[in-house]
Amino acid sequence: MINDKDYKKISAAPSVTIDGFGEEEISKVAPLIGKFIRSYMSKDTTDEVWLTKILTEHLPDKSSDEIFSISQEILSGVDKFEETFLASQQAKLRGLNPQEWIADNIQAASIGMSEKDLVDKLAKLDDAIHQSNEALAKTLKTKSGEINMNPNLDGLLAETEHANSFNRAAALSDSPFEARVLQSNAKNSVDVGIYDKTTNHLAGRYQLKFCADADKTIAAIKVGDYRGQQIIVPSEQLAEVQKAFPNRKISDRIEIDGVKSEPLTKEKIKSLQTKVQGDKEFSEVNWTAYDGRDLAIQLGKEVIFSSAAGAATGAGFYVAKKFLSGEEIKGDEVIVEALKSGADRGIKTAVSAALTVAAKSGAIPTLAKVSARTISNIACKAVETIKIIGDFLSGEISGKEAVARLLWLAASSYVCELAISGLSASLLAAVPVICSPIGVAVGLAAAAVVGVMAFDETILDVAETFFEATSEIVSDIWDCMTTVAEGIGNAIGGFIDWLFG
């Protein structure tokens, strides 16, 4: 179990590192970022001319056509990020939360696509992002051990399969009842509801707990408040769970007025999940109660979680701190003003160029084949991150607001790639990078460099309070997943309800 105390150890531990980005990489990247920002600040020509010149100078093995292509990717990438980030702020003002905004953008991108094709693509994306999140979580090692996460799709599949089989049985018996998978993110909210179709009255409430084994399912039930709901568990766990709760309604099927769903085992659900995420035998899954938006919401949760996990590590920041400490870099009021006023497009362009050169020249080998456009996404996110850290340290925002802004930033980064690539193979390649441990580490390291150039090296020490605060705030998510194995979806849902409610 990871608790608040462990989070403080994590955020204060410079030894937390990411494979592929350590002291050797930051020693090459930090000077480039500094050089490129100062060069940009003193330029007397257009962004395009400046960018072409500095890329040609630092990537001598690239042809003029390649330089032009990289330059255009950076410029268009920064423009698209700025546009998307502004759209995210407008969505926030409309009362949306980040995962809803992501789902809206996914639906817009899927116009003209069949439901099966949409589910196919989103399942692949969910799997790719989940793997990135799992890798990110494994970088957090404390005396309590590694975090072990559980894929979130199986819970949704269990809800869907029970609803589908109930509705088949209801249709055969001309029953007026209908099972619906409910997409509430509130803590302890109902998973499946049984409605009377003639009156739309909610006649039955069901909470599904499909954890890895009976002990974890029992633990999950104990920490929740599920009064008024019947608990549904895997059939092979039923007897043991019923024994643990002799006075509770525990079953392995949803049932009302003689209409029943078919019992499900954990093994069956994991098998279905493998088929969905592996793009195999979709015909075996009845998606009538599980549409593209349901999965888009789940995908949004995964994207948001990557930001929460990134905020908890601070890994890239501490690698940068070790290198930058003692460098006697003076703060620059021009950079501070740009960050505070929002007129920081130039800084984002310079950082994008520096990270691209570092990647293409071999200084960050793991990003060597990543597009300059995606790298610019990481760079823009880095600049926005240091602005959040700065506002927190100045007392302008609370830790809760800082985390909320980080989650919106993660959503903006994802939607930026979605806007450029659509639901294509390019998105499938890019999203795991921006959500991955290496993407998070590079972004936080770049944020540290920009922070030092703006505020001087003292920010390296005081910023620890930012990581402590954000770590404490997201600790409930980790506790839920590591102690009761409810999965990302349920944990982040309650967290979002608290954060944005």
Structure description:
With 501 residues, this protein is an alpha/beta fold. It has 2 domains: 4-13 and 38-149 and 296-500, no CATH class; 153-289, no CATH class. Helices cover 64% and strands 6% of the residues. It contains 21 helices and 9 strands. The chain has helices at residues 4-11, 23-41, 47-58, 64-93, 98-109, 115-137, 153-172, 214-223, 238-244, 266-277, 292-313, 315-324, 333-341, 345-360, 372-393, 399-421, 425-435, 437-455, 458-462, 464-483, 488-500; strands at 141-142, 145-146, 177-181, 192-196, 201-208, 230-232, 250-251, 255-256, 259-260. The strands form 3 sheets. Strands 3-4-5-6-7 form a 5-stranded mixed β-sheet. It has a two-stranded antiparallel ribbon with strand order 1-2. The chain has a two-stranded antiparallel sheet with strand order 8-9. A hairpin with a 4-residue loop joins strand 4 and strand 5 (201-208). The longest helix has 30 residues, at 64-93. The chain is elongated and about 80 Å long. Residues 1-16, 136-152, 279-290 and 480-488 have low confidence and may be disordered.
